[in-house]
C-alpha cells in the first residue's frame, strides 16, 4: 500500500486511537506517544494491512493492548486509569464546580469498574462502536459485550443515584 492509500485508510480513525489511549493512560503526552507508536506499527505492517477485515478494529485492539502493557510496565507506575478533561468557560462558577464534582464522581466510579466493563463502556458510549466491533476488539461474544455494558451502566447509574440521594459519601 502506498503512503497516500495508507493515510486514507488510517487517518480517519487516528483521533479515536488517541482518545482511547488518553482514556487509558491519562497523560496527554503518554497518549500522544502511544498513538504515534501504534501508527508506526501500522505503517510497518503496511504491506499486510489490507489483509485485515477491519483495520480500525485491529488498530483499536493494538492501542488497547499497547496501553494496557504500558500501564503494567514498571516505568508507568505513576499513571492511573481513566481521565476526563472538562472545560466550559460560559458556566457560572457554581455550575462549573458542580460539573467538575460530577465528572470527578464519574471518574471515581469508572476507576472502580472491572477492566472489561471499563473498556466496553469506553468503546460503546464514548467511541460509539457497535457491539460486533467491540466483540472483535475485545475477543468477546456480542452478547457478553451487551451484558458487560449493561452491568457497567447499572453500576454507574446506581452509584450516581446514591451520591445524589445521600450527598457526599
Key phrases:
169 residues; mainly alpha; 0% strand; globular
How would you describe this protein?
The protein is mostly helical. 71% of the residues lie in helices and 0% in strands. It has 8 helices and no strands. The protein has helices spanning 3-10, 14-25, 28-44, 55-72, 93-112, 115-126, 131-138, 142-166. Helix 2 crosses helix 3 (28-44).
Summarize the structure.
The protein is mostly helical.
Please render the helix and strand layout as text.
Layout: H1 3-10, H2 14-25, H3 28-44, H4 55-72, H5 93-112, H6 115-126, H7 131-138, H8 142-166
Mean pLDDT: 79
Give the biggest beta sheet: none
The total count of strands amounts to 0
Name the helix and strand elements from N-terminus to C-terminus, one letter apiece: HHHHHHHH
Tally of individual helices = 8
Amino acid at each position: 500500500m502506498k503512503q497516500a492509500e495508507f493515510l486514507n485508510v488510517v487517518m480517519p480513525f487516528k483521533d479515536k486511537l488517541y482518545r482511547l489511549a488518553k482514556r487509558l493512560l491519562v497523560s496527554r503526552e503518554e497518549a500522544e506517544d502511544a498513538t504515534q507508536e501504534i501508527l508506526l506499527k501500522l505503517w510497518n505492517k503496511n504491506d499486510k494491512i489490507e489483509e485485515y477485515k477491519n483495520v480500525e478494529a485491529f488498530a483499536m485492539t493494538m492501542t488497547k493492548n499497547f496501553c494496557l502493557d504500558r500501564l503494567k510496565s514498571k516505568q508507568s507506575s505513576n499513571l492511573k486509569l481513566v481521565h476526563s478533561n472538562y472545560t466550559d468557560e460560559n458556566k457560572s462558577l457554581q455550575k462549573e464546580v458542580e460539573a467538575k464534582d460530577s465528572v470527578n464522581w464519574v471518574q471515581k466510579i469508572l476507576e472502580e469498574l472491572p477492566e472489561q466493563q471499563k473498556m466496553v463502556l469506553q468503546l460503546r458510549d464514548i467511541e460509539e462502536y457497535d457491539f460486533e466491533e467491540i466483540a472483535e476488539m475485545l475477543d468477546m461474544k456480542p452478547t457478553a459485550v451487551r451484558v458487560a455494558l449493561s452491568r457497567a451502566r447499572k453500576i454507574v447509574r446506581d452509584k450516581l443515584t446514591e451520591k445524589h440521594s445521600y450527598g457526599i459519601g
